[in-house]
Design brief:
two-stranded antiparallel sheet; globular; 2% strand; 2 strands; single chain
Length: 389
Amino acid sequence: MTEIITNKKLHLHYLDGLRGLASVYILFVHIEPSMGETLPFWLKIFQLMMRYGRISVVVFILLSGYGLMLSVIRSQSNTISGGFIGYIKRRAWRILPAYYATLVLCILLAAGIILLEKLTIFQWEYIPGAHPFSPYFSLRDLVYHLLLIHNINGDISASINPPLWTVATEWQLYFLFPLLLLPIWRRFGLLSVVISASLIGLAPLYLLNGLLTSASPWFLGVFAMGMAAAEIGFSQKPKLVNLRNSLPWDKLAIAFTVVAFLTEWRRLGLHIWISEYLFGIATACLFIHCTKLAINGKKLPRILQVFEHPWAIALGTFSYSLYLTHGPVLALVSRFLLSLHMPPTRYAVSLYILGVTASLIFAYLFYLVFERPFMSSFLKKRKVKDALS
């Protein structure tokens, strides 16, 4: 959970619940239930609903900007605690052990698969449309992943464990936050940092012929939106207090969400950054609205209370581990089910049930070993059993 101190102590449970639900949604997105066969109508509809995984990534990036900005707002000097070196050490200690443990896991799994192919009749078959993990990667792929720069090359970012590209993007944003965004914010203010971050993030796309597109550099603007939501939600500056209290943030969140889905519609042919920026604005408005309610001691609207459900909060506890490891787990489960030669519908249902169950169990065990020991003392207090009690 996220703890913020203004004039009273707040526990923003909805942030953890949203993070947990977003990670589970991505898990479903990366399940490919069809092997080319015709599925029942109800399964096709469900599959169509699982096409918006990038929205979850937008939520994760915005949550990062929001959370990091909170620590700055809480400080008396608008600075990062411990300076730049201390900040980077904390960020590295938080995300890198689990990330590198995932890479080791992928290497061992790939080695085992290749060994089986050489010693037995087993063959790791390619599944069209499903790319949660691949055992066939080069030393170059591995080096780029170790350096956390694999997102700069589309071919490399999709190798090994494709979801890991966002970890590289987020790691790079961690550096840009204190070195670029905070100086702009201190000198020119909140609106300037959002506009500057958005323009800088879009520059490679339009000025450098799409350079770094695989890294989605426009997420810099989404990150800045998270910063803006944090300051508007907790600032004591009169102008921002008035802004927080005067605008209908809930209605704005709905409006921007609707427009975002419309612009995402494939037939319009618009670039994906447009809908992602609109989703980012909608999520920022949602954060401001929910935080305002929390500050005033009010409950979330019934439709949003799912974010504070104990199961959602529990999922948020190990959501990072789930995001890191679900690809290889899904790949193994799908190969196992394919070997049983099931009818298409039974295979699809079994993959959803067994794939999700196995991914959650493995992610929680992985979290206990490779993520939780490296958390801060405050974060270590978050336990799944506490969320469910």
